[in-house]
Amino acid sequence: MTFGVLMADGYHNPSMAPGDKPYRVYRGGRSKGNVPLKRKSVTSSGRGAAAAVKNGPRSHRFRVPRLGLGHGGWKRRVLIGFVLLFVLVCVWAVAGYLSLRSGAHAANARLGASAKQALTPTHGLMLSNTSNILVLGTDHANTAERQGIRHSDSIMIVHTDPSRHRIVYLSIPRDLRINVPTHGLDRINTAFQFGGAPLAIKTVAGYTGLPINHVIVVDFSQFRQLIDALGGVDINVPKPILSNPFGCPFTAARCATWQGYRFAKGLQHMNGQRALVYSRIRENKLDPSETDITRGARQQQVVQAVLSKITSPMTMIKLPWLGDDLLKPMATDLSAAQLMQLGWIKLRASSTLHCRLGGVSQPFGGALEIAPSEDNFSVIQMVEGTRPARAPDLRSSLYAPGCSKGTLLP
Q1: Which residues, 6+ apart, have CB-to-CB distance to 280 below 8 Å?
Q2: What global pTM score does this model have?
Q3: Which residue of 95, 120, 127, 179 could cross-link 320, Cys pair, CB 3.0 to 4.6 Å?
């Protein structure tokens, strides 16, 4: 008797014949490869659930910005570099200006109020208006022959014309015989002896007809430290020089046979001591025809070289460290802002002219002085730019007035 097939659960299935299987076999098959399995949910129990609770959903996870070259990282780096550079330039500019302003305040106090009252004020910035700056060079050397002497050894007017990008240096011989207010006819350099910078301003302005807007009084005895701080100056020596033996730097035995200082012809880089010696040379043994005007011209070369170095871009970069020391040998009414404007005017100037007043050497009271030439007023017009520049006619006089693009040395 057949009772059917015994099922897995222990029960018989009476409808199934013996030998039959409890499932069907389909021959369709499937594609090759691993059987895809359903992934467990991250929020399932166990370790995955703990990780999900700790980290949270991926879409809300904080991502650190990449600083690589991809995805605009190089632009970010360039922007950061520009911002840092801008901040550095601002800090440098503020530090340089504060340092220069400190030196300018001290130089303004050394000038005195009476000299400022003698100046002709300008309306507006130096960058947009013509200006005349009187530069007076004094040399209080510790020598017996110069005790108590306060003459202005070098007299020069710096004329700036920003609208035409011009700078003109007008040299005035210190022995030029003109009218000194309240003192009559005398050498022009005695004005500083009689009344200091105020009388010198009035005397120069009265003779030239040029309004003096600013003044700089330079003490040559302090130039040595300034020039060394600037790293030296470049001066073009027009001809070889063998000076008279003054200020011998050697021992007494060697000084007995020492002939004097020597300067070769050409452009030379001088330190403070060398430049000071060059400005003090009164006699050139290699050229007896040199005059006192030649010495004044050498002094003005040094002054111009120092002023050019002070207003140079490289010195402006060093202002935070040098600004307070730049004006120690000077007394001036120029403020820190005006000095920076002067530097910009000089940087942009495309034309530089060197002019001088002159005349004929004549004896007055036992001393040789220079009687002014009528051509001096033509030179003033050349300075102002209303007349073409003309070189001095040295055939008529060694002290002939005129203008030139090069340094005027007879």
Answers
A1: 139, 141, 220, 246, 247
A2: 0.74
A3: 95
